[in-house]
Specification:
This protein has three helices and nine strands, in the order βαβββαββαβββ. It has helices at 7-12, 54-61, 96-108, and strands spanning 2-5, 18-21, 31-38, 44-47, 70-74, 88-92, 117-121, 131-139, 142-150.
Amino acid sequence: MLRVEAPECASHAQPGSFVHLTCDPAIPMRRPLSIMRVDAERDGFEILYKCWGLGCRLWLLAKLGRRSALWEPIGHGFTPHPERPRALLIGGGVGIPPMVFLADRLRARTDAAWQPLVLMGSEIPFPFRTRPSKIFVSVSGRQHCCHAFAG
């Protein structure tokens, strides 16, 4: 998990938006990363990323407070419909952060009785608390329990 302090970006971020972030001055190509959470004071946001490749590994070695170039926020957010407050949000891998962000944002809204449910899949452990769902999926005759983040 990477925490980025960028007040202007945090204030404009919407579920589904992403940023382009520089990994290191020696690597000119930025990485597109989805925003997972915006903090309550709106001075920053969190990004969930998998440490894959040199660029992302350099974030692990970076000192706290290091500055990086950022293109912020990019993309169009989701358009939830209050007449359908039971949102089923499905994401795997890089699709997890926007679903968590959307579930958090829906829970904070008061225009409907929002009941978001996020189904997530990942090949690595989640760096946050999940709750097993009551949903079972049958694949080739075998049952598998899905993990859910209930909003």
